[in-house]
Design goal:
Radius of gyration: 19 Å
Largest sheet: 2 strands, antiparallel
Number of strands: 2
Strand order of the largest sheet: 1-2
Helix content: 55-70%
Number of helices: 10
Strand content: under 5%
Order of helices and strands: HHHHEEHHHHHH
Amino acid sequence: MPGRTSSLFDTIQQTPNLTTGLVDTLVAQIESGELAPGQRLPTEQAIVAATGVSRTVVREALASLRARGLITTRQGLGTFVAEHPAPMAFSIAPDELETLGDTLNLLELRIGMEVEAAGLSALRRTEADIARMEGHLAALEDAISADRSGAEEDFAFHRAILVSTQNPHFARFFDLFGSLAIPRQRVRLGALSAQERERYLRRIQREHHAMLAAIRAGDSSGARRATRHHLTKSYARYQGLSQPAGADGSR
């Protein structure tokens, strides 16, 4: 299927944003009927080979299409074009999050969603959920110690809270953003010294631990307060990036 797979993605190299380009390409193939309802998509590995993009880009693109109801995953069989694609749903494309103002708009949306989700998490989380959150924070701690941004681990922690609400729509909504939900993936940390970066990220980590402590204790009000504090602090930090020299890229 190499030739067929490659032909599906001829336009991917023509767009500056790879995730957006891959999503647009797949949507165009679905809308034109080239990818017919019920048709199996190429594997992630085949798409990576055909496009030259990373597996992360492929997964983000597929998650976006899945959130829109355009594709479905069948356990053990693969990913298929939806038999009855849902009407166009809300989505945020990567090229809609290129400015600081776009980032602040997304943070406002996240505050509205994640504060309530944290309260529900405190009431509904299981011990397995707590263990997953702890694991993600431990991985983030390792990333900080290794002088990495920890954006993936950060995303995983926040998503684990949404999953622990036992309401699948929270995580599905979060998946519309993918890694774009973590602004420091797009704003450079390089303006800070290694010590400044570590100090900054450990302050964020303390906020994460406060959120987890309230959720673990079953304190719904406390979980909401801790989450609102964390995200509003993030909002204030990004507002401070209006001065170019302050672009530290944390969240």
